[in-house]
Design a protein that fits this description.
With 247 residues, this protein is an alpha/beta fold. The protein has helices at 22-29, 66-76, 95-102, 119-125, 141-152, 163-166, 200-218, 220-237, and strands at 3-9, 33-39, 52-53, 63-64, 83-92, 106-111, 128-131, 185-186, 189-190. The chain has 2 domains: 3-152, SPOUT methyltransferase, trefoil knot domain (Alpha/beta knot, 3-Layer(aba) Sandwich), CATH 3.40.1280.10; 167-237, tRNA(m1g37)methyltransferase, domain 2 (Trp Operon Repressor, Chain A, Orthogonal Bundle). The protein binds S-adenosylmethionine. Residues 6-224 form the tRNA methyltransferase TRMD/TRM10-type domain.
């Protein structure tokens, strides 16, 4: 089944943009997913095609009008999958959420501009709010491109070798181990011996140890989750704290 992405934006010309190249571009051409970018301005009702207005209560900037945004949502959202609003106050995007989106038949993404979207339309439509990270972009479009890139590469058939996903960062709760290729010695730096040994189990153990060490030093938050899950798994496997081996 073809995954359907719809982006609601004031800048439809930004799409497919980088999504037309490389992995997402090939997947688009192969029909694994389809992309529609709807211009929110097409849903304005006055002759000036106004989409925004000043904020009630005063303050800087402009706010996207609820009536215009809602009409765009009605036209673009197939309701077979989530409606996402990209905003710095949303849940920060991670691989778990990417996987959830990739398992849906469709994803509709609302891109804000200016100060954002009138709150009432977000309440009325029960949107899922998603952030790309703790920084402020000029608009939701770069976040939509990043989100769709991450989702599309998980669609079945999008990547050439399926096992290239298995050991990627976050897939097993860890950051990835380091990679090396030819030449075996470069500027006096040698590739770790074990990688030249041809001993698959030792290579695999070395990679796991490096992935764990990198995660532990760089991302204590991920490491804490990983070790908690590992402890839970071990407890379950041996009967758990209340099981026969945990008495
Ligand atoms: N006034 C907003 C605030 O302080 O949170 C920022 C508005 S920003 C200039 C315009 C739009 O860019 C937002 O409505 C949102 O759609 C998008 N945007 C900005 N930063 C983002 C982020 N970190 N993640 C996702 N979308 C973002």
């Amino acid at each position: 089944m073809t995954f359907r992405a719809c982006v609601l934006t004031l800048f439809p010309e930004m799409f497919p943009g980088p999504l037309g190249s490389s992995i997402p571009g090939r997947a688009l051409k192969a029909g694994l997913w389809e992309l529609e970018a709807l211009d929110i301005r097409d849903f304005a009702t006055d002759r000036h095609r106004t989409v925004d207005d000043t904020p009630f209560g005063g303050g800087a900037g402009m706010v996207l009008r609820p009536d215009v945004v809602d009409a765009a949502i009605e036209a673009g959202w197939p309701k077979t999958g989530p409606l996402v609003y990209l905003t710095p106050r949303g849940r920060v995007l991670d691989q778990e959420l990417v996987r959830e989106f990739a398992a849906q038949p469709s994803l509709t993404i609302l891109c804000g501009r200016y100060e954002g979207v009138d709150e009432r339309v977000l309440e009325a439509r029960e949107v899922t709010e998603v952030s790309l990270g703790d920084f402020v972009l000029s608009g939701g479009e770069p976040a939509a491109l990043a989100l769709l890139d991450a989702v599309v590469r998980l669609l079945p058939g999008a990547l050439g070798a399926t096992d290239s996903l298995d050991e990627e960062s976050f897939e097993n709760g860890l950051l990835e181990y380091p990679h090396y290729t030819r030449p075996a010695v470069w500027q006096g730096r040698s590739v770790p011996e074990v990688l030249l040994s041809g001993h698959h189990q030792k290579v695999s153990e070395w990679r796991k140890a490096r992935a764990e060490a990198i995660t532990q030093t760089r991302r204590p938050d991920l490491w804490a989750r990983y070790t908690a899950r590992r402890a839970e798994f071990t407890n379950t496997a041996v009967g758990g704290p209340n099981g026969e081996c945990g008495q």
